[in-house]
């Protein structure tokens, strides 16, 4: 893969979990990265990006921008050849899904891509979508062709009332494709990652992924973990996929980026060799009937339990491997690196 460093690129949400690794990859490749952030003067949030630039052959320029403000990205996008749009909320604990999930995801995508249509230098937009735009529950896999999710499948089961995060990602990606079809200056390449795991580069990651892994080590699941099926991908592998999506000329359409078909218990078991003696990791699978019974007390809809627990999740990641030469590191390595970071931050107490 040949990377053109003659023009800058822009990364939205540059201080975020996934975007941070993308920025690092781009800087190490020698690119100038334009990073629009809410407050460029908030040193604690942007210092790690500045440090990456100083240690690399690339350069970073910070810009003030607001995801929901029209025209906010014009200055940052000026002269950029590639736009990476990663900024979108990832949380399942919301009081107002429309305001906290749908509006930022959809309107933010529209603002960024419509600005790309007004910026002559932009030739490619790489959108960080999600496998959530393909499915809602593991049970959806059974309804997919041959029982496996592919890039041809779209999420039709999420709604504002059920799994609104998945609904937000579906609406945002559909909006992106609509905008892409209305112009001919740039092409759209979409990445659909599964649950992202692995270490963060910023000191206080807020991704929902860390909330899930925290429960594996803080005693919440010491009695056992449900075998709730989903896929996972290491954040470092995902960042490399973004760079490939930007600079692989033949890349087009959607790409499932997922390293492993797994479940919640398996994530916990991947940590046992290294951490079981010190932390209350889950040792066994909780029976589905028990998970269903206590679901309301855990904030889980019983519908979610029925459609995900003891249901295998399967996705076809062959397109990313074929087009990008994508490779995936072992699940155990990703989980151990992520868990160790939480240990180092003092998140857990030893048993």
TrEMBL record:
The keyword Oxidoreductase applies. InterPro entries: Epimerase_deHydtase (IPR001509), NAD(P)-bd_dom_sf (IPR036291), NAD(P)_dehydrat-like (IPR050425). GO terms for molecular function: oxidoreductase activity, acting on the CH-OH group of donors, NAD or NADP as acceptor. It comes from the Bacteria. This is Short chain dehydrogenase. It comes from Shimia thalassica. Keywords: Oxidoreductase. PANTHER family: NAD DEPENDENT EPIMERASE/DEHYDRATASE, VPS9 DOMAIN-CONTAINING PROTEIN. Pfam families: Epimerase (PF01370). Residues 9-252 form the NAD-dependent epimerase/dehydratase domain.
């Amino acid at each position: 893969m040949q990377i053109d460093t003659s023009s800058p690129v822009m990364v939205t949400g540059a201080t975020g979990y996934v975007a941070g690794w993308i920025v690092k990859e781009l800087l190490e490749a020698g690119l100038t990265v334009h990073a629009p952030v809410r407050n460029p003067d908030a040193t604690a949030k942007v210092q790690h990006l500045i440090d990456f630039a100083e240690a690399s052959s690339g350069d970073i320029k910070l810009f003030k921008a607001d995801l929901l403000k029209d025209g906010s990205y014009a200055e940052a996008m000026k002269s950029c050849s590639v736009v990476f749009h990663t900024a979108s909320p990832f949380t399942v604990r919301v009081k107002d899904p429309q305001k906290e999930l749908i509006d930022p995801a959809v309107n933010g995508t529209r603002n960024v891509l419509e600005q790309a249509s007004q910026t002559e230098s932009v030739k490619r937009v790489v959108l960080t979508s999600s496998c959530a735009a393909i499915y809602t529950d593991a049970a959806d896999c059974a309804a997919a062709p041959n029982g496996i999710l592919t890039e041809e499948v779209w999420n039709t089961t999420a709604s504002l009332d059920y799994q609104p995060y998945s609904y937000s990602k579906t609406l945002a990606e559909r909006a992106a494709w609509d905008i892409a079809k209305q112009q001919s200056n740039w092409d759209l390449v979409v990445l659909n990652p599964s649950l992202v795991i692995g270490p963060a580069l910023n000191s206080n990651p807020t991704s929902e992924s860390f909330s899930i892994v925290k429960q594996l080590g803080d005693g919440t699941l010491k009695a056992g973990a449900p075998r709730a099926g989903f896929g996972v991908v290491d954040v470092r592998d995902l960042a490399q996929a973004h760079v490939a999506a930007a600079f692989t000329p033949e890349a087009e359409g959607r790409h499932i980026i997922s390293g492993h078909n797994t479940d919640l218990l398996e994530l916990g078991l991947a940590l046992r060799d290294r951490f079981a003696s010190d932390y209350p990791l889950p040792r066994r699978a909780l029976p589905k009937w028990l998970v269903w019974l206590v679901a309301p007390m855990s904030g889980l809809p019983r519908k979610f339990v029925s459609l995900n627990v003891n249901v295998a999740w399967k996705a076809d990641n062959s397109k990313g491997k074929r087009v990008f030469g994508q490779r995936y590191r072992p699940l155990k390595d990703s989980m151990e690196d992520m868990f160790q970071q939480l240990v180092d931050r003092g998140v857990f107490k030893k048993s």
